Amino acid sequence: MIHGPSLAIGAVIASVVLVMVFLGFENFSDEPELVMEPTPTIQESGPPKITMTTFLENGSPMLGNPNAPVILVEFGDYQCHFCNVFFHSTEEDILNNYVETGKVRMIFKDYNIIGPDSVTASHGAHCANDQGLFWEYHDILYSNWTGENNGWASSENLAKFAQEVGLNIDDWSECMTKGVHSQTILASNNDARSLELTGTPAFFIIGPDDKVTRIFGAQPYEVFENIFEIELEK
Fold first, then answer.
1. Closest of 143, 118, 145, 141 to residue 20, by C-alpha
2. Domain ranges of the chain
3. What is the rounded CA–CA span in Å between residue 130 and residue 118?
4. Distance of CA 170 to the CA centre of its chain
5. Are 42 and 178 in contact (CB under 8 A)?
6. What is the pLDDT of residue 16?
């Protein structure tokens, strides 16, 4: 069971992100590609620089062939309605046709904008990752989604999900109580803000030449397919 400490941790982290409900956007951007700069070794003043680290660190383990030429990065919130729409309507086709065939690798990053349960759910996934079951826990969260801020992602339910995917519940509970991954989740939220994201889900497709294409909202599979094919031709 998860008790007060994990909820307190979630509340503290959630207090530094926007606790609001944003609707997913129904368009994707064909703006000029983002400028990738080498990751600075010294903290610089001024606006944060966008680097490959912004997309690839502070998130999930890579899903798919680590040498796949195209990378799909999703910023999501486990309580987000449109994130759930993407999971059920689009993600499976992407996994079947591009990830499992070695063409695309995928990473999930947290952007907790709905409420404290969003943060606690994120922590549950990262604690599952300690036992090599991040994606299984990610999937069970979205498979049990029933709305925003209605209690489905309570500490009790998160513990039940941990048991269902086969985690060592004692180790997972200790990870949750200690807030082991709080800084990773906070850093991922900071990465989302540095990219000026205002809602979830938000996607970034990184091609073999490091060109970055942004997609906002739960777009249909064909939108992703079109961009993947363009990048794979390079």
1. 118
2. 4-232
3. 19
4. 25
5. no
6. 32
List the strands of the sheet with 212-216, edge to edge.
104-110, 70-76, 202-206, 212-216
pLDDT digits (tens, 9 = 90+) for 168-214: 999 999 999 999 999 999 999 999 999 999 999 999 999 999 999 99
Contact 137, 128 (CB under 8 A): yes
Q: Which residues of the chain have pLDDT under 50?
A: 1-45
pTM of the predicted model, to two decimals?
0.80
How far apart, in Å, are the Cα atoms of 215 and each of 49, 125, 202, 204, 227? 20, 24, 6, 6, 10
Burial class of residue 233 in the structure, from the number of CB atoms within 10 Å of its CB (0-12 exposed, 13-18 middle, 19+ buried): exposed
Using an 8 Å Cβ cutoff, are 24 and 194 in contact?
no
Select from 33, 3, 205, 14 the least CA-distant residue to 110: 14
Which residue matches tokens 């989604």? 145
Token couple for 151: 């209690």
DSSP designation for 81: H
Q: Is-contact 109 59, C-beta < 8 A?
A: yes
Q: Residues 188, 111, 206, CA angle at the centre, nearest 5°?
A: 70
Q: How many residues does the chain have?
A: 234
Whole-angstrom Cα distance, residue 212 to residue 72? 10
Task: Yes or no: say if 135 and 63 are a contact pair by the CB < 8 Å rule.
Answer: yes
CATH H-level superfamily of 4-232: Glutaredoxin (3.40.30.10)
Q: How far apart are CA 163 and CA 182, in angstroms?
A: 22
Phi, psi at 28, each rounded to 5°: -125, 155
